[in-house]
Amino acid sequence: MSELRKYTVEFLKVLADPTRLEILEQLRNSEKNSSKIQEELEKSQSTISKHLNMLVDNNLIEFEKKDNIKYYKIKNIDIFTLLSHINSTVADINTEKLKDLIDIDRNETLS
Known about the structure:
CATH architecture of the largest domain: Orthogonal Bundle
Largest sheet: 3 strands, antiparallel
Radius of gyration: 18 Å
CATH class of the largest domain: Mainly Alpha
Structural class: alpha+beta
Strand content: 5-15%
Low-confidence stretches: none
Number of helices: 6
Shape: globular
CATH topology of the largest domain: Arc Repressor Mutant, subunit A
Order of helices and strands: HHEHHEEHH
Number of strands: 3
Strand order of the largest sheet: 1-3-2
CATH superfamily of the largest domain: Winged helix-like DNA-binding domain superfamily/Winged helix DNA-binding domain
């Protein structure tokens, strides 16, 4: 396997976690410290710390220390374009499944 493919696989693994995606979304419009992220996501400090470190290690976010507190921010805003394309592709691929689920939900609601 080529080095690029290894990096690509690792990158996709990082994105394949709901908590990390939620953290990215939290940082979309503003920088935040880990306590604020922890509070907003209602996750433990250790969980948030683990995920923040993974996002930093994979160059998706960066931090700046202010008064000994780390403030995290998105390193490259293009990540949201990529995530949007992924969401669109997943929706396109799964259109029939999603339609069937909506129909089931609608029928259960009417019952």
